[in-house]
Amino acid sequence: MKKVLRRANAMRRVCVGTFLLFFAAFPSISLAETTINFDDLAVPVPPGWIELPSSYEGLEWSPLWEVEDESFFQSVYYNTYSFPSGSNAASNGGGVESVAVASSSPFVLNSLWVSTWAAYNGFYEYSSRTLTIEGYYGDILVGSSTINLSADKFDFWEPGITSPIDTLVFKNDGDERWWLMDDLSITPAEQAVVETLVETEETIRLIPPENLHNANAVKPLSRKIQATLKMMYEGLYEDALDKLENDILKKTDGCAETGAPDSTDWILTCEDQAEVYPLVMRAIEIVQRLVE
User: Fold this and answer.
1) Contacts of 34 (CB under 8 A, 6+ apart)
2) Which of 19, 40, 152, 172 is the most buried (most CB within 10 A)?
3) Radius of gyration over every alpha carbon of the chain, rounded to an integer in angstroms
């Protein structure tokens, strides 16, 4: 356990350093994920809510999204808990069964905070007891997740839809059932690739030299990843995909393909490949979305 913790801490320190160096070299790629909290919108009380603008934060929001004021939620419905971000949270206006938000470019869903619409810190007839998120890329359902909502607090939710999507659909458990959402966190697909590649490089740097096909293999592997990062910065997504699929992946995939390292692998143990291979595959999956 101590060995695992030391490895994790070392990776965290090195990864931060490489991440900052990369963004110093390529400053036009955003470092921060986007967290949407609705607090910049003025919500008069009364009525305590407004319609959410359809193009808020550069996304396209379907009709019937509303933004609710915390004081309205507390004073009129006698709830004592607070919205996570501050004064505002979003909800499904009219208790409609389904609302959606879409982007013109793919993104990765990270997390959000959710609660039912409560009264007296409890469920009542208009409270939704569950919330389902569906993530789509075009017409393809990429993944979905359902959470049981609380009536006395907001819950932090990581739905686990890790593949790139361009549309989120939110569904409650029936008509005229309300719920609330705050601090919706998403990452643009381009940035998700960069983060994944940086993590891949630092994972490789922590592999013991004796587990590589030669003691200096870390340097050429790192250069290959850095070259791919440069392609991402320059918008050469097809070239980046080719580099990932036909160069980097081929040196890390023997165990995944055959159950043992093969003659083209530069990483010689399945234990180490098991840490690197999923990261390379995730980067490939995201870049594939960008070239479609």
Assistant:
1) 57, 185, 186, 187, 188
2) 172
3) 22
* Tokens of residue 264, six digits: 């083209």
Q: Rounded to whole angstroms, how far apart are CA atoms 282 and 288? A: 10
Return the bridge partners of 186, or none: 34, 109
Determine the structural domain holding residue 106 and report its residue range: 34-187
Q: Which of 187, 203, 232 is the last residue of a domain?
A: 187
Structure tokens at 271: 């234990």
pLDDT, residue 10, reads 42
- DSSP codes, 165-213: EEEEEEE-SSTT-BEEEEEEEEEEHHHHHHHHHHHHHHHHHTS-GGGBS
3-state secondary structure of 103: strand
What is the rounded CA–CA span in Å between residue 84 and residue 93? 20
Domain end position, chosen among 164, 187, 210: 187
Q: What's the pTM?
A: 0.81
Nearest to 232, CA basis, from 205, 195, 200 = 195
Helical ranges in the chain per DSSP H: 2-25, 70-75, 189-205, 218-233, 237-243, 254-258, 270-291
pLDDT computed for residue 292 by the predictor? 86
Q: pLDDT at position 32, please?
A: 54
Nearest one of 280, 279, 247 to 264, comparing CA atoms: 247
